[in-house]
Structures are given as structure tokens and as C-alpha cells.
Design brief:
By secondary structure, the protein is mostly helical. 75% of the residues lie in helices and 1% in strands. It has three domains: 2-478, no CATH class; 545-618, Serine Threonine Protein Phosphatase 5, Tetratricopeptide repeat (Alpha Horseshoe); 633-701, no CATH class. The protein is globular, with a radius of gyration of 30 Å.
Amino acid sequence: MADSAVSFKKYFMVILGLLLFIPPFFKGLYFDKDYLWFVLALLILFTIYYSTQQMGHNKRFLDNLNDYLVLGFVISYGIAVFNAANYNDAFNGFLRVVGYFIVYYLIAHGLRSQNDVSKILNVLYGAGLLVAVVGLGAGLNFYHFAGDITDGRINSTLQYPNTLAAYLTAVFILGIYLALSQKNRILGIIYSLGNYLLLITIFGTQSRGGILVFLFVLPLFLLGPLSKVKLIAWVNTIITIVFAFFVSRNVLADISHQTAFVSMSWVLGGAITVAAFSYGLIFLVEKITVPESIRNLKILVGVIIILILGLVTGLSYDFLPSQFTSRITTINLNDRNVLERFVFYQDAFRAIKDNMIFGAGGGAWRTLFQSYQSYYYIAREVHSYYLQVWLEVGIIGLAFLIGVWFTFIRSTIRLLRSKGNNYEAGILGWTILCSALALGLHGLIDFTFSSGAVAVFLWTLFGLIRSLEAANEDDDNCAAEKARSTYIKKDLVVISALAILLIITTSLNAAVSYSSMASKSLQKNDISNFKRAAGKVNTLNPLSSSFHLYLAQVYAQSGGEQKNDKMMTMALEEADKAVRLNPKEPTIREVRARIYLAMGKVDEGIKEMETALQLQPWYQERWGILTETYYQVGKYYQGVGEKEKAAECFNKVSDMPARISAQLAKLTPEHKKLWVLEPKLQVDSYVSSLAAKADSRLKRI
């Protein structure tokens, strides 16, 4: 029995480690189609773990406040599905947090030693280092792939430089700990070299928010409970930073024109220097004995830190790429990007007010932002994770998330207060906390956790802290005796939930495959195969509106060409389904309006066009579409002799420039300055020309 338990633990750690390693390399699991297979893999592993390690045993499913809060967060996303702005996005959002719960649970309950925790940290570090190397390789022009570099900024596999900077900062914190905790001198040097590469890539992202978080979290970590190695940590880290600065100046000054050979020469030269300094530092620590009389090195450490930081500050403008220093030195509250984000936050609060308690479901901002925006912009992310959560799951869900952070910090404090043999657990806990803070703080000002890989990283850290804490607790406190009937009911509930989730997730993954087939068929104008594949999608994923919309358009086109009323009815039925699933999407409303109009249901068509405008009031093309609709309907009524209805429609057209002007009058001077995208701030000439034509027709009625 003991051998089988050891064997399971071995395979469990390997599979879990693999699942934690690969997420950053699939575009950071940003897209739902990439995240769905990951959730399915997690569900399979969790089912195996639960059925072999907990089912039938006298163990609680949830054994501490941390667990209850994490599950509460998941449940809040499940409840929000019923009040969702977009049912498909909301359910996918629910599945995302189900994945986070599984990651947390498997680590918090499946790991029970510092050695296991260190193994997972090495997995996270290895993945992060490889992400950095892949991005740096693109930055050095060794190769290129889609989305690797944007405007001279390294994106790597996460496809977004700001998220990459925060992610690698969190990895870098882990790297410092791993470098200092190695008893093997060579391994310590290898980790220092890895940290050096991480830093160069962080600088290559040119992320202002990322650097601000870096400058806050790194000193916080180094000032923490590292008393036995604090001086070594400071000196080793500063040496690595200085040489990463210097190399960055020479290899990242002009990414697009730098030759790979020259860049690699600089990187290797810096690596050799960092290795030499690290070796020398370790050698000195091992060979030089500090006299017993020197017990307090705070003054010496302070002097060294001030001197080195002063040197770095004085030389950094020469060391760093000019475009990087210019981005950092221009950080201010009047910066355009900062002002835009404040607008996003204000608009998000307006949406939150209408969905305060339970939220509008996962992905709500992407559906709702056009209805609440203060002027025309395209921003599919709130750029603040906590506001996004508030909008998606309301104040209740946000409270659960804040509670998770609270218990995470509380558990870390408990580890820091440990005495004697638990000193190392305290350092490990402090490392995990600071790594998590790098992500959590960046999430305040950006959509950091929209990347599933980064979110998985964070929830892994949450689980690791709980695992360390549980390892120091009395097992009886975590597994209290319960009646046999009670835990049988618990097993039944858990296994049933897992079975349902497995079936649903498998179905959704199959729907993704058929979606690809349907899209390819549509591109080839293979309507027969498109209808077949689209039907499969709608069966396998009944919450998605996309292919109901596509089918509505296909049926409407065929019905219009063939004068087939049955086909038009089928088009309307598909459009109705799309609206029910995604009622806040203006494009769907427009499609249904056109179908209504084609079927002669004029009043319904006009009403739908007005609804589309209400959902997207700052999109000027929407005003043009509505104006054209009124004009064409007026012509129709005039042609059939219904002068009163025709006059009503032409009057609507004539009033349109005034309606547009009234809408534009809502803009503040600040918003006018920020509105740089099309459409322009004016009454469109097309609308004006239609209004003139309508006036002319009114005179003839």
C-alpha cells in the first residue's frame, strides 16, 4: 500500500508539474479555445486524484477558511451565469475559475512537504525562464513568430509586454530565492544566470507599470526575513541588475536592426561576468568568517546599498535603451495611457452600478463597454482585474477574492512566526507572497489575469502557501472524524459535479473543433458543410451565439435570393436564438433588424436598429445605418402610398443631424482630446445628405 502511494505521488507530481509548465506557451491561455483543453486536462487529473486519495476516506473536502473562500469565488461565477450579459462568455469565465480552483486544491491538498513546494517553484521558474529566453531570442533577431515583438517591445509567448513584465518579475523573485537556497555552488550560479536573462527580458518589455511593480516588490522582498542571507541577497541581486542594465543598453537599443551575432556576444559576455561575480561572492561567503563581535551589519549593508544604488542611478540612463528610459521618465498622471485608463475605470464603475450585487458574468466588459463608454474607443479589457471581477461577479464575488488574498497573507504571516526548524518555511512563504504581490499589484492597473497562464501561476502560489501551512498543522485539525454517511454524501456530490463538468468541457472542446471546420467551410463558400458543422457547434455549445448569427445571415441571403419565405423564417429563428444568448451585442441586433425588414416587419426592424444604436451610441457608422434604414423605409411607404408613415420616417431622417449633435454635446473637452480613433467628431456627410433628401421628399408629400 505504501509503495502504491509513493508511486501515485511520483506520477501525480510529474503530471501536475507538466500542466503548470505548459500554459505560457499557448498564447498564455488568453483565448477560451486554448484554455478549454487545459481545464479538461485539470478535470481529468483532479478526478483521478480525488477518486484515489480522498473518496471513501474520512477526509473533509474543504478543511480551512482558504478553501471555502476559493470555492465561494467559483460559485459566484456560477451564479453570475444566470444574469449574464453574454451567456457563452459567462460560462467560459466560470470554467476558468473552476480551473483555478483545481490548481489551488491539488497543490494545497496534494503537497505536504517543503521539498514538494520547492519542486513546484522550480517548475514555475523553469517555465518563466523559457518564456524569457524565447522572447529574448526574438528580440535578438534569431527568429520571429506571430506577436513576438510589438513596437520594439518584447511580448514573447504571452503576446502582451505589460503582462510579460509582471509575470517575469514574479518569476525573478522565485529565482532569487532558488539561487540563495542552493547548497550546490554550481546550481546557485546557474540560477543567477537565469535571473540575469529574466532581467534583460523584463527591460525589453519597456513596461512602465511592470517596472514600477518591480521597483516596489524587489526591495520589499530583500528587506524581508532573509537575515541569514540578506547581505548576499542584496549584493548578488544588485550585481545581476547592473550587468543586465549594461547589456540591455547594447542589445535592446534597436531591436529591429541589431544583428544576432553582436547581440548574443553582449549577452554571453554579461553572463560570464555575472557567473564570475556570483562564484566570487559564494567563495567569499564560504571562506571568510565574520568575527563574533560584528553581530549587526545593518550599517555596513546600508552603506553598500546606498553606494551601489547611487552608482546604478547615475549610470542607468547610459546603460538602458533610450526608448526604455524615455517611457519610464514620462510616467505621469497626464500621460495619455494613464488618462485613458481612468476613463475605462469610470465607465466600468457605471456598468458596475447596474450589476452591483451578482455581476454580469464572465467577459461582461467585452460585451457592455460600448454601451457605457464616455466616447468612442476600443478596449476589450477593463485594464484593472479587480474592477473586472466586480463587474463580472458583483460585490459578493469581489469580497470572496479579497478574502482569498486576506487568508493568503494570513497564512504567510503564520509561517513567518514559525520558530526553530520552520525558519526555512517562513523564508519560502515570504518568497511566495512577494512573487504573488508582483502579479496582484500589477493586476490593479492592467488586465494581467486575463492571461490564463498568469492566473494559474497566481493560484498555484495561493495553493503553495496553504500547503506549507498545512504541513505544519496537526493532521487531526485538517481531517476531523465524521460519520460514514456524511463523507459518502460528500463523495457523491463531488464526483457528480466532476462528471458533469467533464461532459460539458469535453463537449465544448469538440465544439471548438467544429467551429474551425465551419469557419473554413464558410471561407470556401461551402454552404452545405458550413451548415452541417455549424449545427454541430450549436448542439455541442448551446450557449454560443456566434454560429446562430452566421446561420441567420446564410439563411437570410439564400431566402432573399430565392424568395423563400421558409428560409427567411429559419433565418429569423436563428437570429432570435442569437439575441437570447447575447442580447447586448449590437451586431446581432442589426442582423435581426435586417431580417425583419426583409420580411416586411418594418416596425420590428426599426425597433431593433434603434436598440443597436443604444448599445453602441458612440459608433458613428451605427448612426448612418439607422438613418439609411429610416430613409429606405420612408421611400417604401411613399411608394405604396402610405404618406403618413412615409412622412414619419422622413422626419426621423431630418432629425438625425440634431440627434447626433446632441450626442456629441455630451463629450467633455478631455474626452474630445482622447478621441483619436474614427469616426470623427462631426455629423457625417452621408447623414447630412440623407437628411437633405428626406426634406426634399417631405415637400412632395
